[in-house]
């Protein structure tokens, strides 16, 4: 197929050249698109695709949007895709200036702030846990004695903007509360977090713990119309004290009435947050009291998890990636006919079982022999430090499977994981003078 004389240009806003970025780049290239980059860490890109990135500061969305506008005056842009939470406010503002459909800038900011999003959902009458935020400088003992903490134990302490359950800790009593507060504070004051220059990193949120099963939802909003692409079960109980995620399997094993209630609740939440055009990734809990929206991010699923999803469309055929769908949506194409494949599918985010230095993994070939396992991708590099949750945020790899039922896929993922043997050396302590 010959490429058009003047191909459309897609701008990708990202912080690193990780696997997710490469997946979008490869998909855009197959679509015959020109690709432009905007990054707040452009020195890390090293121009791998020989297309220099625009150096942006995502903590200044308005300034970043003006830079994108100036670039687009010379090199017209037909669509913007933001990877990760940090880039979404800049993408929203730039899209507004360029007249491209996207989520509203205010919505992009609210979805990145657990306190503001909770306020918005509570105002819409949705199930929301009791919550309060406290400055990072607060004394946790005084917080416990104060009038503002009308939250029963167990409760959950969490940062306002970090993703992938990083820094989220359950506390069952006052002693655990104080220890957890100090631990989250230490994480937020770490150089790795401070370099992101987030105002939300100056607070710790305390919430009522919500029990029940947890699901994840991947979907789109098309000019105000919600389209759910997949509902994932999370079969491993996420009860704390930390909340590292492991297995996602779709379709979710929900009764028709519960699924209908979940879909209705999610649409109400999206309407309350005023999401308009673009992908979303949501996390919800289900218990006897109803459906509880926990997080709704104005972006697609992170990492390599998108490889667990395949779609079909009358216009595009079979075996369509999520990246293809998200890019088409950004370009204003009609994606209403997209449907997930008929097979069940799943991904296991390989947990970090111990802190140390990654050396090697054995058993990958044997794990790949298990029926219904499609692929195993080890993302950890030799010499990389592995940090467990809640301080950590990086999985050593991913296992992918497809099969006739969610149950069989889940079993295959667990069997494959049991065959993997990670070699992790103890991390040497840092000696300070």
How do the helices and strands line up, and which of them pair or pack?
Blueprint: E1 9-14, H1 19-30, E2 34-39, E3 54-55, H2 61-74, E4 79-82, H3 88-98, H4 105-111, H5 114-123, E5 131-135, H6 140-145, E6 155-159, E7 169-171, H7 174-188, H8 191-194, E8 203-208, E9 213-222, E10 225-233, E11 247-250, H9 256-273, E12 278-287, E13 290-297, E14 311-313, E15 317-320, H10 322-330, E16 339-340, E17 344-349, E18 356-362, H11 364-368, E19 373-378, E20 385-386, E21 397-403, H12 406-418, E22 421-425
Parallel strand pairs: 1-2, 1-4, 2-3
Antiparallel strand pairs: 5-8, 6-7, 6-8, 9-10, 9-12, 11-17, 12-13, 14-15, 14-16, 17-21, 18-20, 18-22, 19-21
Plain-language structure description:
This protein has 12 helices and 22 strands. Helix 3 (88-98) runs antiparallel to helix 4 (105-111). A hairpin with a 2-residue loop joins strand 9 and strand 10. The protein is globular, with a radius of gyration of 22 Å. It is of the alpha+beta class. The chain folds into 4 domains: 9-100, 3-Layer(aba) Sandwich (Rossmann fold); 130-208, Dna Ligase, domain 1, CATH 3.30.1490; 212-342, ATP-grasp fold, B domain (D-amino Acid Aminotransferase, Chain A, domain 1), CATH 3.30.470; 346-433, Alpha-Beta Complex (Aldehyde Oxidoreductase, domain 3). Helix content is 29%, strand content 28%.
């Amino acid at each position: 197929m010959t490429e058009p004389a003047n191909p459309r240009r897609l701008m990708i806003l990202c912080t690193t050249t990780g696997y997710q970025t490469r997946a979008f780049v490869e998909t855009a290239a197959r679509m015959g698109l020109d690709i432009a980059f905007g990054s707040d860490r452009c020195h890390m890109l090293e121009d791998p695709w020989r297309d220099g990135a625009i150096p942006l500061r995502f903590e200044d969305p308005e300034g970043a949007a003006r830079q994108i506008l100036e670039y687009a005056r010379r090199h017209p842009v037909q669509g913007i895709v933001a990877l990760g939470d940090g880039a979404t406010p800049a993408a929203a503002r730039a899209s507004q200036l360029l007249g491209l459909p996207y989520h509203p800038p205010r919505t992009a900011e609210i979805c990145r702030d657990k306190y503001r999003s909770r306020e918005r959902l509570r105002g819409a009458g949705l199930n929301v846990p009791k919550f309060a935020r406290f400055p990072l400088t607060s004394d946790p003992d005084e917080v416990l004695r104060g009038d503002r903490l009308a939250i029963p134990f167990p409760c959950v302490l969490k940062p306002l903007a970090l993703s992938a359950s990083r820094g989220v800790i359950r506390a069952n009593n006052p002693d655990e509360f104080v220890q957890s507060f100090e631990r989250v504070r230490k994480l937020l004051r770490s150089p790795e977090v401070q370099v992101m220059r987030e105002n939300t990193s100056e607070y710790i949120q305390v919430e009522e713990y919500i029990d029940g099963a947890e699901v994840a939802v991947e979907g789109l909003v098309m000019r105000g119309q919600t389209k759910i692409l997949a509902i994932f079960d999370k079969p491993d109980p996420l009860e704390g004290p930390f909340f590292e995620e492991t297995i996602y399997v779709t379709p979710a094993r929900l009764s028709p009435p519960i699924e209908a209630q979940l879909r209705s609740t999610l649409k109400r939440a999206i309407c309350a947050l005023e999401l308009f055009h673009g992908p979303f990734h949501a996390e919800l809990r289900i218990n006897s009291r109803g459906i509880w929206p926990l997080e709704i991010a104005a972006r697609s699923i992170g990492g390599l998890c998108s490889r667990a999803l395949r779609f079909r469309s009358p216009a595009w055929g079979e075996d369509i990636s999520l990246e293809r769908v998200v890019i088409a949506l950004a370009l204003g194409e009609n994606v209403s006919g997209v449907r997930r494949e008929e097979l069940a599918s799943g991904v296991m985010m390989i947990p970090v079982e111990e802190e140390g230095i990654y050396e090697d993994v054995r058993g990958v070939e044997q794990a790949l022999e298990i029926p219904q396992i499609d692929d195993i991708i080890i993302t950890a590099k030799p010499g990389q430090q592995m940090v467990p949750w809640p301080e950590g945020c990086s999985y050593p790899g991913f296992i992918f499977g497809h099969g006739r039922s969610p149950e069989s896929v889940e079993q295959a993922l667990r069997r494959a994981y049991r065959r993997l043997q990670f070699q992790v050396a103890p991390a040497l302590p840092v000696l300070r003078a």
